[in-house]
Amino acid sequence: MTPKLLIISKALGDETRLNIIRFLLESEKCVCEIIPYVKKAQPTVSLQLRKLEDLGLIKSRKQGKKVFYSIKESKLKEIFKLF
Q1: Which of 15, 25, 55, 57 is packed most tightly, with the most Cβ within 10 A?
Q2: Tens digits of per-residue pLDDT, 18-64?
Q3: 8 with 73: CB under 8 angstroms?
Q4: In contact, 69 and 27? CB cutoff 8 Å
């Protein structure tokens, strides 16, 4: 297994991270939009977002007090097209 595939597999192995990725495939989202979508507490969502960012799969940008997340790893979009 290639290192990139291993990283993606690890990320998708958690239901919350999987749901976050699915949601971000649509477009860039603010944390305030992600929390109600995944139906998890803010600390849980923040932890999972940090893990996805550390894995290099998503990226963040600040705009004022808000933080927006988007897909960084283009291969994720290809993987989800298969399903």
Answers
A1: 57
A2: 999 999 999 999 999 999 999 999 999 999 999 999 988 999 999 99
A3: yes
A4: no
Strand-strand pairing, 29-30 and 58-63: unpaired
pLDDT interval class at 1 (50, 70, 90): low
| Chain centre to alpha carbon of residue 8 | 11
The side-by-side arrangement of strands in the sheet containing 66-71 is 29-30, 66-71, 58-63
Encoded tokens for 32: 């305030």
pTM, two decimals, is 0.86
- CATH T-level assignment (fold) for domain 3-78: Arc Repressor Mutant, subunit A (1.10.10)
Beta strands at 66-71 and 29-30: parallel, antiparallel or unpaired: antiparallel
Q: What amino acid is encoded at 27 in this protein?
A: S
Neighbours of 18 (CB within 10 A): 15
- pLDDT value of position 78: 79
